[in-house]
């Protein structure tokens, strides 16, 4: 379908069709990256890569979002050049190609929605297709305007609108994938709340060096140094904290260093 829209854009002279084709090409690239990332993520871990290739999904999502931004920049550049001198367009053929693109994108969006949206990579591909669906609708509207009124300036204007849609669809993916790559605390969690919940576990006196991050979609990890009372069982308290983190926050991958609180062992020296 991408090749058909490229041919249609070149034949009709429509930048909007070419913009939609460019976005569809990025869709194909995005889905290809998603498939590669899913395959890599299933590979077992090794001593060199303790988490395997699970971050491949996040890297693919970041590349997808970045690709969308680059495509939108090209569209705006071309559209500005056409504002002063809009070319002659074949509105009837443009309408046909836009209608075909709309049907194909609607079918692709339906398939991705039914596949579920828990994976950031699938979410990135779905945003590609939804933005492209709106783009095809915009091309269809532009074609109708050109056929009925002959106003060809609508083509670069719709192209810039498509570019805006592309950037908006890319923003969430870039934001989320960048946050994971920078190992920020997951947006669904508050580090202070997690720390307070740990300290609230009976026997725990304090917690520090707390880190919460995401390995890949649906896989959060936590590490912390936990101090317990001098007479408490470190192993029992560790199990209590692990159970609380799993049941309250859904965090099952934890690395906890549990020691006795040194303040309980201080001895007052007198002269």
> Which of globular, elongated, flat, extended, rod-shaped describes the shape?
elongated
Task: Give the assembly state of these chains.
Answer: single chain
Number of strands: 3
Biggest sheet features: 3 strands, mixed
* Widest sheet: strand ordering: 1-2-3
Q: How would you spell out the order of helices and strands?
A: HHHHHHHEEHE
Mean pLDDT: 81
Helix run count = 8
Computed over alpha carbons, the radius of gyration is 27 Å
Share of helical residues: 55-70%
Span from first to last CA? 89 Å
Low-confidence stretches: 265-271
Going by helix content, strand content and strand pairing, the class is mainly alpha
Proportion of beta-strand residues: 5-15%
Short description:
This protein has helices at 2-12, 15-41, 56-83, 91-114, 120-149, 154-181, 191-199, 234-249; strands at 204-216, 219-228, 253-260. The protein is mainly α.
How does the SSE layout of this entry go?
Elements: H1 2-12, H2 15-41, H3 56-83, H4 91-114, H5 120-149, H6 154-181, H7 191-199, E1 204-216, E2 219-228, H8 234-249, E3 253-260
Parallel strand pairs: 2-3
Antiparallel strand pairs: 1-2
Helix pairs in contact: 1-2, 1-4, 2-3, 2-5, 2-6, 3-5, 3-6, 4-5, 5-6
């Amino acid at each position: 379908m991408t090749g058909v829209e490229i041919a249609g854009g070149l034949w009709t002279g429509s930048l909007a069709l070419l913009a939609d084709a460019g976005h569809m090409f990025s869709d194909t690239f995005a889905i290809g990256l998603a498939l590669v990332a899913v395959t890599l993520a299933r590979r077992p871990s090794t001593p060199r890569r303790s988490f395997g290739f699970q971050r491949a999904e996040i890297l693919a999502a970041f590349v997808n979002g970045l690709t969308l931004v680059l495509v939108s920049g090209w569209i705006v550049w071309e559209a500005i050049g056409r504002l002063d001198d809009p070319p002659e367009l074949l509105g009837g053929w443009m309408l046909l190609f836009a209608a075909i693109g709309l049907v194909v994108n609607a079918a692709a969006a339906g398939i991705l929605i039914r596949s579920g949206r828990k994976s950031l990579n699938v979410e990135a591909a779905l945003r590609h297709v939804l933005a492209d669906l709106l783009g095809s609708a915009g091309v269809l509207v532009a074609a109708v305007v050109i056929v009925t009124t002959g106003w060809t300036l609508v083509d670069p204007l719709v192209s810039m609108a498509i570019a805006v849609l592309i950037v908006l669809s890319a923003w969430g993916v870039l934001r989320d994938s960048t946050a994971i790559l920078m190992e920020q605390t997951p947006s669904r969690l508050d580090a202070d709340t997690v720390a307070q919940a740990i300290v609230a576990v009976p026997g725990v006196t304090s917690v520090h060096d707390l880190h919460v991050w995401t390995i890949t979609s649906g896989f959060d990890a936590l590490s912390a140094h936990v101090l317990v009372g001098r007479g408490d069982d470190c192993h029992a308290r560790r199990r209590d904290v692990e159970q609380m983190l799993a049941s309250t926050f859904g965090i099952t991958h934890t690395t906890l260093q549990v020691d006795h609180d040194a303040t309980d062992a201080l001895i007052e020296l007198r002269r």
